[in-house]
Every structure is written in C-alpha cells, then in structure tokens.
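#help-structures
NK: newbie question, is this the right format to request a structure? protein is DUF2953 domain-containing protein
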Amino acid sequence: MIAVYILLGILALLSVLLIPVFLSVRYETGKEISIYIRVLFFLKMDLAEMAKKREKKPGQEENKPKKQKKPKKEKPKAQKSPKEFSEQLGMVVDLLSSVKGGAGILIRNFRLYKIYLHLVVAREDAAQTAISYGKCNAAVYTSYALAENFLNMARPEIAIEPDFVTGESLVVFHVKGRLIPIVAVWAALKTAAGFLKRTMKRKSREKQAQRLSEEQKQKT
C-alpha cells in the first residue's frame, strides 16, 4: 500500500511539473513596466507590483529616531592561503562550466512568442530624425538576427516609423514566454551532475599530482 502512495505522489509531482508557466512582459513609453507570471488560468502574479511592495516608502526611516550604535571592533580578516584560494577558484570554474549545459537546456526550451515592437523615432529636426530612424532600424534588425540564432522565438512583429510632425518618440514592446517546470528541474540536475563530475575529476588530478610530487621528493 505504501508503494502505491509513493507512486501516486510521484505521478502527482510529475503532473504539476508538466504544467506550463507563462511569462508576460509589457512596456510602453510613459507607463510602468508590467511583468506577469501565470500558471493555468487562475494563478497570476504581478512581479512588478510585488517588487514595489518590497521597496520601503520614502521617509519611513527618516521619521524613526536613530539609535546610536556602539563602535564595533574590527576583527582581523583571515587571510586565505594559496591552496585555499586555488581550491575555491577551481570550484568556481567547475560551477561556471557546469552552468553552461543547464543554461543551454533552458534557452532551447523557453519559448518566446507574440513578440511585438513598435518604435516611433522623433528628434529636433527632420535631418536628425532621419538619421536616428536609420540607426534604430539597423540596431533592431541586427539584434533580431543575432537573437534568432540562439533563442527559441517566434517571428516578431516589428514596426519602426519616423515622426517628422509631433516630435514625440514612442516605444511599445510586449512579449510572452512559456516554460515547462520539469525542464528547469532537468537543467538544475544536469548542472549539479556536471559540477559534481568536474569537481571529482579535479580532485583526482590534484591527488595524482600531489602523489607524483611526493614520490619525486622521496627519490631525491
């Protein structure tokens, strides 16, 4: 009976991890950026609003009476030996090398779609507007060509136009993304496995080098 409960628990966990998570980002000139994460049709979180709530209100700390803090005695910082530093540096290198594989899985499986970009280019006079319009076109389409090579993205809708009359620029951008959580779990597991494998190989090489060094010392 316990095995049945364990099996049901595993199936329930897999079912949850297979539910896609949706991301929506929207920005428009003169308005605040909105970032939403949605799961299913009813679980929706506004990340931008959550970030605002975490920020402290201006003047909140100024009204509070400041307490005089006693001066703390500075403790002498422990200096790391070259061996400790090299070991930590090796761990950092192993971690960065392992993250590459996991990040690749996330990038390939994170789908970007409904990409919309509308730019209205306006400057002080018509000549500057025309120059800025050409630069914006070159920058946007060059960035799109580069992003298309490594991102899993749908074809975006891009509209760039100059404004020689009102002199007001405008940026409207929105994009949606989709990721299945089990992909993120797989990426994390692959990163952890790669980190462990590289660390064990590095430790093995260090022990072998140390053993050879001791053997040479004994011979001399």
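mod (FA): yep, format's fine, and the tokens are attached above. The beta strands are 21-28, 34-39, 43-46, 111-121, 152-153, 157-162, 170-179.
NK: thank you!
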